[in-house]
Design brief:
Blueprint lengths: L6 H6 L20 H7 L4 H5 L2 H15 L4 E2 L6 H5 L4 E4 L3 E4 L6 H8 L9 H14 L4 E6 L1 H10 L7 H9 L1 H25 L3 E6 L7 H16 L6 E5 L17 E3 L6 H8 L4 E6 L8 H15 L5 E5 L9 H14 L1
Parallel strand pairs: 1-4, 4-5, 5-6, 6-7, 7-8, 8-9
Antiparallel strand pairs: 2-3
Helix pairs in contact: 4-7, 6-10, 7-10, 8-9, 8-10, 9-10, 10-11, 13-14
The protein binds coproporphyrinogen III (CP3).
Amino acid sequence: MALSDAPLLRALAGDRPAQTPVWFMRQAGRSLPEYRELRVGTRMLDACLTPELAAEITLQPVRRHGVDAAVFFSDIVIPLRLAGVDVEIEPGRGPVFANPVRSVADVDRITAIDPASLDSTAIAEAVRLVTAELGDVPLIGFAGAPFTLAAYLVEGGPSKEHLRARAMMHADPDSWNRLAGWLAQISRAFLIAQRDAGASAVQLFDSWAGSLNPADYRAFVAPHSRAALEGIDIPKIHFGVGTGPFLADMRLDGAVDGVGVDWRQPLDEAAALLGPDTTVQGNIDPALLSAPWPVLEAHVRDVLARGRAARAHIVNLGHGVPPETDPDQLTRIVELVHSHG
Ligand code: CP3
């Protein structure tokens, strides 16, 4: 089979391949014992920037589960690290910034960094190592959407409601737009590096967009997400959690080929909102990964049935694989989806 005939890419083009494609957000990571073994003694962001390690971790779930795509092992904050921003990932917590960006002066300082100056050598090398081994299995590159990155950067670390970023939009829209516009260019540079090195598709993660109301999403966020994808001429998926109230806006006016749906919204309802020109991706409830197989199996069959309502369907979870997941449950899902026909 040619890479261009891969079920994932056919589904993104709007076809329904004989075998429905399936992959999992966070398939590369802590649910795999072989991942935990490799990561011992290496910090998360250092692992991402060590090409052999990042490539091997990316390939692990493809070998184990037989998924229809690899997703590049990296992180949404990697391009910020490459831009010289002081960021670490604290285990069990998430991205933490030494200098939160809150004032006009903070925004001036960070936006003075030229997004074109990022050294993406380690990213490109890792992507090349991965694609050389993958053959006809596509590699999905990714980046964080400007709002989700800002939710960390303005707060200085993880937060529940992203109050400071949402406040900045209204209190100082000029600073917000400068910051989000710069973040869009940072993420775009990361996407371009992955595309140029061989990624077949990309996913833009706006994981925390669900904390916004539809009007704020449209006015302050969607234009910057569109900018992050500008000129990325390979298939594009856009994903967020809790974006049901403005799901159709996640199409970014047709700029993306597929939209990821979380577990809260049945796929047939999502398909009706998204219309005939968008592939749906999702939306197995990650909570059910810990349920007995017959319970999980019935849920996956329901997701497959509802996915028929869309022009095409890529099976995935509604969000990432929880670290405590038994990886055999993921392998069983892949087998079920592939035998479904
Ligand atoms: O398998 C994959 O999906 C590819 C790799 C990937 C990672 N992060 C690896 C990772 C991807 C696509 C991401 C994106 C990412 N990073 C997002 C968007 C996706 C989402 O889940 O909504 C976000 C919000 C981040 C920021 C981030 N990085 C968080 C919240 C955490 C978890 C912190 C923790 O320990 O709970 C990270 C760390 C991270 N990124 C891990 C992995 C495998 C865990 C690191 C470890 O093994 O300790």
